Amino acid sequence: MKRSSPFQIVLLCTFGALAIAGVLIFSFYISKGGTSSIGSVTIWGPFDEITVQGALGQLMDSHSDLQNAHYVRKDPATYMSDLTNALASGTGPDLFFLTQDEAYAQAPRILAIDNTTLPVAQFESTFIDGAAPFTGAAGTYALPILADPLVMYWNKDILTSKGYAQPPQYWDEMFDFSQKVTVKTEAGEVQTAAIDFGTYNNVDHAKDILSMLIMQAGGAVTIRDVNGRLISGLMAKSGGDVQQAAVPSALRFYTEFADPSKDDYTWNRAFPDGQTAFSQGKLALYIGRVSEADAIRAANPNLNFAVAPVPQVRASDPAKTPAIDTGTIYGVAIPRTAKNPKGAYVIQLLLASADVSKTLSTALALPSARRDVLDAVRKKPGDLQMSSYEAIIMRSWTDPDPDKTDDIFRAMIEDTTSGALLLNEAIARAEQQINNVIGI
Asked: Can you give the pTM of this predicted structure?
């Protein structure tokens, strides 16, 4: 008998557990034959099966009627291009995983859940704010499952040696922190960096970090105009002085730490990527995703580090300046070319239900994308308590094309740090380029 993959086991067992409990989700999608009529459902995703090995595997034998649901792992490096090509040729899956920044570009290929079936208000009250890009004019393109927010990894030995018991909580602390923590040779060469800000190619999440700084400052990367059309929001034409200054202040702050003429200079292109530098003990603070903790431990088991929330903008009135984080949110979508859309709907809806989301969250050590699950978890001590709070405060922007906007953000940062363009010129150029990608 063919052995089921660990991810398949997770899917089937969580579905079966709900079926036994008598949970009915959108029953009009399920034919009269019950769960046995789900049929074959092929699911694609970029996840390593080892991450879910053994999770709920003991229940598989009790739910053999669902053994026709199959997960296929795809190479993360080529996943979206492989998926796009397969969907175009009609050889794709019945259900696939995607992130919020891929939803806009993939929307024409997705069988959306219309707003009558799943009203926008219900979506917003069920899932975190960061999942908003999964919705659009046609309805809901994907149901959010898990979140992978940015957090701040900090080297306890480096901070302790400099007299810090805790890492910075606010960005305005970073200037003094960088000056005290950065270690340089007499020639000015940086040996130990405070934080990996300022460049693009060797900062693992440069676009996410700069986007977060923009949103924390009150700005936006993309917005909807009065007609609901997606446009760039980098060059704000309205919204007051704070919004108009948000992008320049965020870009100026981010690039500050790669400027050798500044007292807080701490990062440059000579360093390896941020995660590697942190694992090697050459970087005090690293902004990375929750999911990276195991990789950091594996790279250096002796590294004495901890995880903290990402810093925020210090505000005189915190009520008017909400805490904001960003990161990756994973959802599941049904392609228009699905051979078994009814079966795919059943699995999709169950994966996004509270009980299954909680089970997957525990198995994968990632926060759920559901508000009710997060609210319960953040009230209890545990590994997911802090990351669940970060998931709650996550925000996202609708990305018209992740690959193209990567290039746009790279150019905006490098044009600023190299002096090729003035800061406002680099932003104006990025605004035009984003609108070109959108088709304006």
From this structure: 0.88
C-alpha closest to that of 248 among 38, 79, 13, 428 = 428
CB contact at 8 A, 187 and 256:
no
- What lies within 8 Å, CB to CB, of 81 at 6+ separation is none
Residue 374: CATH number of its domain: 3.40.190.10
Which residue is associated with the tokens 């693992």?
A: 204
Max distance between CA atoms of the chain, in angstroms, equals 77
How confident is the model over 360-405, as pLDDT tens digits?
888 888 999 999 999 998 877 777 889 999 999 999 999 999 999 9
At CA 427, angle to CA 422 and CA 431, rounded to 5?
A: 145
Residue 95's DSSP bridge partners are: 43
**Residue 371 to residue 148: CA distance in whole angstroms:** 14
Q: Are residues 77 and 113 in the same domain?
A: yes
DSSP state of 326: -
143 and 153 in a common domain: no
| pLDDT tens, residue by residue, 62-98 | 334 335 667 788 888 898 999 999 998 889 999 999 9
Count CB-CB contacts under 10 A for residue 420: 11
Helix 6-20 × helix 341-351 angle, to 10° = 80
Q: Give residue 424's domain range.
A: 149-326+397-438
- Last-in-domain residue among 391, 410, 429: 391
